[in-house]
Design a protein that fits this description.
By secondary structure, the chain is an alpha+beta fold. The protein contains five helices and six strands; from the N terminus they run αββαββαββαα. The protein folds into two domains: 102 residues, Ribosome-recycling factor (Topoisomerase I, Chain A, domain 4, Orthogonal Bundle); 68 residues, 2-Layer Sandwich (Gyrase A, domain 2), CATH 3.30.1360.
Length: 186
């Protein structure tokens, strides 16, 4: 039989992971400003093994609209350029033989609205994970009650789970509002 504290900690941990995943996902969304996070998840063929761009080159943001990639080996320019093109992040690389520049285009109002819609879809996925964690925790309390946990302790635990859920749900709203503001700011 799990204790109330164990169930609450497990639920809270799962919900925290859901928030962290949402924040990581939103970092990768382009909001009109240059950010090295746009390149996260893009793998380059480095001597036969897929490797992150940041592992084969220095990646900098010299100004608000440019990402500069300087490969440590000149032979990596082609593979990096190809990986960026194939990644469908909507940026066209240009290279001068020594470095690759990614210029961030200005976002149109329509594109901003699409990105906000995408943010809301990601937020809904996180809410689903919160609801799943809440449901599993409530079921754990019901199972523990059958195994001998006092009924009032189980009911109090379920109420506590609801409070935890509301806290993390509010956090999702805050994260989404901040990202939406960032995207819609011209």
């Amino acid at each position: 039989m799990e204790t109330t504290q164990q169930i609450l900690e497990n639920c809270s941990g799962r919900m925290q992971k859901g928030i962290a995943f949402l924040e990581d996902t939103l970092l990768n969304l382009r909001a009109g400003k240059a950010s090295v996070n746009v390149l996260n998840g893009i793998a380059v063929d480095y001597y036969g093994s897929p490797t992150g761009i940041d592992k084969v080159a220095s990646v900098n943001v010299p100004d608000a609209r440019t990402i500069l990639i300087r490969p440590w080996e000149k032979t990596m320019i082609g593979p990096i350029e190809k990986a960026v093109i194939n990644s469908n992040i909507g940026l066209t690389p240009s290279n001068n033989g020594e470095e690759i520049r990614l210029n961030m285009p200005l976002l149109t109002e329509e594109r901003r609205k699409q990105i906000v819609k995408q943010v809301k879809e990601e937020a809904e996925k996180s809410r689903v994970s919160l609801r799943n964690a809440r449901r599993d925790s409530v079921e754990s309390f019901k199972k523990s009650q059958k195994d001998g946990m006092p009924e009032d302790e189980a009911k109090n635990g379920e109420a506590e789970i609801q409070k935890v859920y509301e806290k993390y749900s509010k956090k999702i709203d805050e994260v989404v509002a901040a990202k939406e503001k960032e995207i819609m700011t011209v």
